[in-house]
Amino acid sequence: MNEIKPNIKLKPCPFCGGEAGMFYYGSKGRIIKCKRCVIQKRQKVLNKSIEWLEDKMIENWNKRI
Questions:
Q1: Residue whose C-alpha is closest to residue 22's, from 9, 14, 64, 47
Q2: What is the reported pTM?
Q3: What's CA 62's distance to the chain center, in Å?
Q4: Which of 10, 14, 9, 31 is nearest to 22 (CA)?
């Protein structure tokens, strides 16, 4: 799986403290996952832009909700 946006600012994994990255999940989805313990959050978008989804996922990962 190839990482996209390697320069985005993501907080470390809340479980192990490992580095997180964003990856493709089909053409309309994204995954943010820990590179160490592989915990992940994946979402797809239906009626919004992919940029909107990426921004929301980054915001939510960093807020820990």
A1: 9
A2: 0.85
A3: 10
A4: 31
- Please list, residue by residue across 36-58, b when 16 or more beta carbons sit within 10 angstroms of its beta carbon and e when fewer do: eeeeeeeeebeeeeeeebbeebb
Q: Tens digit of pLDDT per residue, the chain (65 long)?
A: 677 877 889 999 999 999 999 999 988 999 999 999 989 999 999 999 999 999 999 999 999 75
59 phi/psi in degrees, rounded to 5 = -60, -45
Residue 21 pairs in a beta bridge with 33
Please give the C-alpha separations between residue 13 and each of 4, 18, 32, 40, 61, in angstroms, as whole numbers. Answer: 17, 5, 10, 9, 9
In the numeric block, the tokens 């470390």 are attached to 12
How many other C-beta atoms can be found within 10 angstroms of the C-beta atom of residue 12? 12
